[in-house]
Amino acid sequence: MSRVRIPPTLRGETEGAREVEARGGTVRELLDDLTARFPALRRQLLEDEELAPFVNVYVEGEDVRTREGLETAVDDGSTVILLPAMAGGSSAKSAAHFPRG
Questions:
Q1: What is the 3-state composition of the chain as percent helix, strand, coil, each rounded to the nearest 5?
Q2: Which residue ranges make up each domain of the chain?
Q3: Whether the predicted pLDDT of 8 surpasses 70
Q4: pLDDT of residue 85
Q5: Strand, coil or helix: what is 66?
Q6: Is 80 exposed, middle or buried (0-12, 13-18, 19+ CB in 10 A)?
Q7: Predicted pLDDT at 74
């Protein structure tokens, strides 16, 4: 089993859990196990059975996109971090309306 760290934005889908255990020899298998137990996570993490473009997954601190993507190996006992990108911020125009100081 591996430990999967769940960010605050996804904890509503995991009944508030900050970390859950999941099985799988690859990231794909691990996500299949995880989403079988927490089905609402699937639409948050995957798009057309591939990692959604706004989601980052790290295995032992390394981004899986720099490795083999969903086919990246996951060793038993590994730590996997799910990190969806955060949207938002302000444009330069809207930021100009707020005083600095």
A1: 35, 25, 40
A2: 2-95
A3: yes
A4: 82
A5: helix
A6: buried
A7: 98
In angstroms, the CA 18 to CA 26 distance is: 21
Q: Which CATH class is domain 2-95?
A: alpha beta
Q: How confident is the model over 47-99, as pLDDT tens digits?
A: 999 999 999 999 999 999 999 999 999 999 999 999 998 665 554 444 444 44
For residues 43 and 51, the answer to whether their CB atoms sit within 8 Å is no
Judged on CB neighbours under 10 Å (0-12, 13-18, 19+), 99 is exposed
> Model's pTM, two decimal places?
0.82
Tell me if 72 sits within 8 A of 26, measured CB to CB. yes
